[in-house]
Specification:
Oligomer: single chain
Bound molecules: pyridoxal-5'-phosphate
Low-confidence stretches: none
Shape: elongated
């Protein structure tokens, strides 16, 4: 599953002691296992090898360039959603032919940069956006390939903030609008409207909603074929869930086994854009207990990481396992106490975990917040003027700083 394991009583990432990493780089600290990252990419690649899809790692999950570079070297493309991610994608050196660009609010400037650099596909989310891409491509005297993101109106079982394929969500267009676009596609003279795209949400643990959505979209593709309109690309999005606590998500193999028979019903080439599945369990946030605070109703472990470093618990009520970096194996259950693990930010919503059981937690202890590789650092902020933390990649017995910790000068660099 991942490469964070105890050796005797000490937590290791691959062959490096997490305590040593905390000493060397300080806390809070994001630590990533290169091996976990690569092995999850390969799991997807192998599971889908019968159809050889274009895999585009979803940068929003983790856009650290060192992380993306590892995946790009493995052959991955990139799924992007902003001019910033496009900029980083170029810096990483991914072939522009492997960049797909989604998002409901692409600006004219972002569109122009994408077209100028010959990115592979824009995943278009509305008719006004389609018209704008057509206009910009015309102005540049270029032709751009696009896919239409279809909202298949499927309600997947996940947190309501990360459902994206239900009719009431802002993403994609309904089938009728997609039909109008394809039947009318000659009017977009500077575009090759040649693909369809879906992404129904994130952290989805079973195949059923994916299957339902794909069946609907393949019916659509067939309908278009009956009108003589071939669709060359079908981007099936990301969304594969991972284990945070007691979920039983499908493996890449199980997912492929469930959906490959569906995808065989279309001649379209498949694109897949997973984020969380690849990087989620490859990362942990290491934090130090600053204070133990006991109130009449609670024990608090006040740690040096906070909602600005990892917002998922505050934003979605998401669960992350929290492990002691130095484990204590007591048999006497009376030693076990419940703690809320909270950060220093001035919000009651600032917590990393509630009612977590620990043995003799004390000031100075290190904790590891697991499964923090996806939507961890990439959603971090400077709230409360806190400095963003460092990130480290471990490879075997070596560690490498892949983002330095911010300084107070960084904090005011852009202010005038
Ligand atoms: N593709 C699109 C269009 C997305 O919006 C997202 C995430 O929100 C992803 C892919 C990646 O999703 P996940 O990390 O769940 O695989």
């Amino acid at each position: 599953m991942h490469d964070f394991n105890y050796k005797h009583n000490d937590l290791y990432c691959e062959s490096v002691s997490v305590e040593e990493l905390a000493k060397k780089y300080g806390t809070p600290l994001y630590v990533y296992s290169r091996n976990t990252l690569i092995s999850h990419y390969r799991k997807i690649k192998e599971a889908f090898s019968p159809i050889n899809p274009l895999i585009c790692f979803s940068m929003k999950a983790n856009s650290n360039m060192a992380i993306c570079k590892v995946l790009v070297k493995e052959g991955s493309g990139l799924d992007i959603v902003s001019g910033g991610e496009l900029y980083k994608a170029f810096k990483i050196g991914v072939s522009s032919r492997k960049i797909v660009y989604a998002g409901v609010g692409k600006t004219e400037k972002e569109i122009e940069i994408g077209i100028r650099h010959h990115i592979f596909l824009f995943n278009v989310e509305s008719i006004p956006e389609l018209e704008l891409i057509n206009k910009v491509a015309g102005r540049l005297g270029m032709r751009q390939k696009v896919a239409i993101r279809i909202n298949p109106d499927i309600k997947a079982r996940t947190h309501r903030y990360i459902i994206t394929g239900h009719g009431e969500n802002k993403f994609g267009v309904d089938f009728e609008t997609a039909r109008i676009i394809f039947l009318d596609k000659q009017k977009y003279k500077n575009l090759s409207v040649s693909g369809v795209h879906m992404h129904i949400g994130s952290q989805i643990v079973d195949a059923k909603p994916f299957i339902k959505a794909m069946e609907r979209i393949i019916d659509f593709i067939k309908d278009m074929e009956r009108h003589g309109l071939g669709i060359r690309w079908f981007n099936i999005g990301g969304g594969l869930g991972i284990i945070y606590s007691n979920e039983k998500p499908q493996t890449a193999k199980e997912y492929a086994k469930a959906i490959l028979p569906i995808l065989k019903n279309t001649k379209a080439n498949i694109i897949i854009e997973p984020g969380r599945f690849i990087v989620g369990n490859a990362g942990a946030l290491i934090t130090k207990v600053q204070y133990i605070k006991k109130t009449p109703s609670k024990n608090f472990a006040i740690v040096d990481a906070s909602m600005n470093d990892l917002i998922r618990p505050s934003l979605y009520g998401a669960y992350h396992e929290i492990l002691p970096v130095r484990s204590h194996f007591y048999s006497d259950s009376k030693e076990i106490k419940d703690f809320d693990v909270v950060g220093p930010i001035c919000e009651s919503g600032d917590f990393l975990g509630k009612n977590r059981k620990f043995i003799s937690l004390k000031e100075g202890d290190l904790l590891s917040v697991m499964g923090a590789g996806a939507y961890g650092f990439s959603m971090s902020s400077n709230y409360n003027s806190r400095l963003r933390v460092a990130e480290v990649m471990v490879e075997g017995s070596k560690s490498r700083l892949i983002r330095r910790r911010e300084t107070y000068e960084d904090l005011i660099r852009t202010e005038i």
